[in-house]
Amino acid sequence: DVQLVESGGGLVQPGGSLRLSCAVSGVTVSTNWVCWVRQAPGKGLEWVSCINRGTTTYYVDSVKGRFTISKENAKNTAYLQMNSLKSEDTAVYYCVSPWDYWGQGTQVTVSS
Questions:
Q1: 79 Cβ partners below 8 Å, 6+ apart?
Q2: What is the secondary structure of 21-81 as a DSSP string?
Q3: What is the pLDDT of residues 15-58, one digit of tens each?
Q4: 7: phi then psi, degrees, rounded to nearest 5
C-alpha cells in the first residue's frame, strides 16, 4: 500500500516559518514526483509545489521565493520549508504522489 503521512503543521505568526514533512511508503521518492497541495477554508484545492524524479522544483507564483520543496531519498521523505508566512497561507496542506495517492493533510494556521 502507498501511504503519505504529513507532519509539522501548526500555528505560526505572520512572517514566521514552518517545515512540513511527508513520510512516504509504498513508492520511492527518488523515482517519483512528490507534490504539495493546499486547501484554504471555504476554498478549493490549490497546487503549491512539486519536485520531479530528480531535483527540479516547481512552485505556484504566490509562494515563489518563500517556500522550498525538497526530498531526502535515504529517508523516503519529502519536505516543504515555508518562510515569510502570510495569513493567506492558512490551509490544510496535503502531500501527494501525483495524483493517485494523498496524505491525510496537516493544518497550517498563520495568525497573530
A1: 19, 20, 21, 22, 69, 70, 71, 72
A2: EEEEESS-GGGS-EEEEEE-TTS-EEEEEEE-SSS-EEE-GGGTTTEEEEEEGGGTEEEEE
A3: 999 999 999 999 999 999 999 999 999 999 999 999 999 999 99
A4: -155, 165
